[in-house]
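User: My collaborator and I are trying to settle a disagreement about how two of our proteins should look. Neither of us wants to argue from intuition anymore, so we agreed to look at predicted structures for both before our next call. Could you fold the first one, then the second, and keep them clearly separated?

Assistant: That sounds like a sensible way to settle it. I'll keep them separate. The first protein:
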Amino acid sequence: MAVSNVNQAVALKTPETLKAAIWNHRSVSLAEMLTNAMEEWGLMSKDPAIVTDNAANMVCAVEITGLTHVGCFAHIINRPRKPISNCRMLHAFLGE
C-alpha cells in the first residue's frame, strides 16, 4: 500500500487528536497525543495502561503521561532472538 493510501486509511479511522501527531515520534508529542486520545475516548477515569513495542520514545512518552506502561511480551521475547541467531558457535553446534 502506498504511503499516501496508508495516510488516508489512518486518517479515516483515527480520532482528530491522533491525526495531527501521526508522524511525529518525539516522546513529548507522543505523550500529548496519548493523553488527548485517552481524554477524547473517555478512558482517563478508567486507570488505563498503555502497551507499546518498548521503543525508548514510547516508554518515555508513557512515563511523561504518568500512565502505566506495559511492554509488549512478543517484542520482549523476540529481542534476544536476533543476536542469538547470528551466533556462529550456535550454528556449528546445531550443524547448520
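The second protein, kept apart from the first:
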Amino acid sequence: MQAFRVLCQSLYLQPSPYAFLYFYDTRPRQPTTWLSLISHPNISRLVVFSQSFKHFKDKYFKVVVKEDGRSHFLNADGSTKFPFSWTGTPSRYKDMGTNELSVGDKEVVETLMKFTDKLLTKGLVRVYNSVHPINDIEGHMAQSGKKNLALFQMLRREMAAKTKAARNTDVPNL
C-alpha cells in the first residue's frame, strides 16, 4: 500500500482505498481482523514481494499448494490437519469496475494503467523515507526499464502542469 501511495503522490494523484482496491481483490469478505490482498494478474501494476509475510512469522505462515487437487494440509502420517480454505466452496470476489469509481479515482487508475511494465514495490517503499524521493523514484524507474522512466517523467510533467493550471496548492509531500 505504501508503494501505491508513493507512486500516486509522486504523480500528483490522490491515492485512495477505492483506487488501490481496483487493482486487488480482498479476502475474506466478512469483517474480520485481517485482510488478504490478491492482485489481479491482468491489471496489477505493482509486483508484491513475499517478504511482506515476514512480520507475521510468529503467528502466521504462508501455504503454497504445489500439487493439483489438494484441498487439505496434511500431517506427516497423511491425516487431515486443516483445509486450504475456510469453506469447501470459497467465494470469488467481484471485480471493481471503473464505473464504480469517483472521477478522482478513475484518474488514478487510468494514469497507473499507462504503465505497461509492472513496478517492483520494494524499490518504491524504500523511497518512502528518502531525502530526495523523486530522484530515487526516477532511479527505481530507470532500473525497471527506460520505458517506465520516460513515462513517469512525462506523466509527472503533465500532472504538475495540470495541478498548477488548477491553482491547486496540494503538492505531494513525499
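Some points you might bring to the call about the second protein. Residues 5 and 16 are 8 Å apart (CA to CA). Helices lie at 2-10, 17-22, 103-112, 121-126, 133-143, 146-165.
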